[in-house]
């Protein structure tokens, strides 16, 4: 039922007559029952969930359009400039105008499908390599000196335990950084960044070496040396529930790959490896650091 409401919200939240009441009536549940289910599975009410989506839409329009704040407020279902500004500041601790000027990292909302959580749980219990995707493309990208912005954990061993410890707001926060070199990812930290009890499991993005904007307290930042990143990417897949198999295919390809045949050596000690997840349109994607052994 929660997944049905998420699907409806995703399809219709930009429509002029969109409302919480429309969500409930189209699914056939009372507002009270919908709120109870959202609280149980997403730790927030239906209204809070939708409110965060509207604010995220507003933040994206501030960065990517030239609309004034009043236009954006009306476009995101707020009744006035003041209401939008007040809600925006309460959520992100910065005014809309200041955010447009500074473009700092803020925790944008990501519409995680609740069904994916249960697919991950099932996949964790039953590892199935049958019928996995076959094709995996590999591409090298050179990286100069740069910085890593990351959100560490202290006990996490995988994605699920990371989200249980740190939460799931990391993707929206890290992807809100315009200067990022690639999208936010689950990462394995190199040993030099796992001191003081920090787990190797974190999330992060790479940014240019001259990045010097303020960051939330949850974020750490470190410099990385130059290296080559090998990107592994599967073919697209047909069913949403196959995203775990797509990611599994990427890591099977990395495990089987012999970089020395092409003049490289894996260099997990100098940079993180990145798990970018999977998308039905593009497949799964991961990147690992290597160094050139011929030079």
For this entry, give a set of tags:
295 residues, alpha+beta, nine-stranded antiparallel β-sheet, 20% strand
Description:
With 295 residues, the chain is of the alpha+beta class. Helix content is 39%, strand content 20%. It has 11 helices and 9 strands. Strands 1, 2, 3, 4, 5, 6, 7, 8 and 9 form a 9-stranded antiparallel β-sheet that branches. α1 packs across α2 and α5 crosses α6. The radius of gyration is 21 Å and the shape is globular. The N and C termini lie far apart (57 Å). The mean pLDDT is 90.
In brief:
This protein has helices at 2-12, 20-27, 31-42, 46-64, 69-75, 81-92, 96-102, 114-125, 159-166, 170-175, 243-256; strands at residues 136-143, 146-152, 185-188, 201-208, 220-224, 227-234, 264-266, 273-279, 283-292. The protein is α+β, with helices and mostly antiparallel strands.
How many beta-strand elements?
Answer: 9
| SSE topology string | HHHHHHHHEEHHEEEEHEEE
Strand residue percentage: 15-25%
The end-to-end distance, rounded to whole angstroms, is: 57 Å
For the sheet with most strands, the description reads: 9 strands, antiparallel
- Radius of gyration, whole Å: 21 Å
Can you tell me the residue ranges where pLDDT is under 50 for at least 5 consecutive residues? none
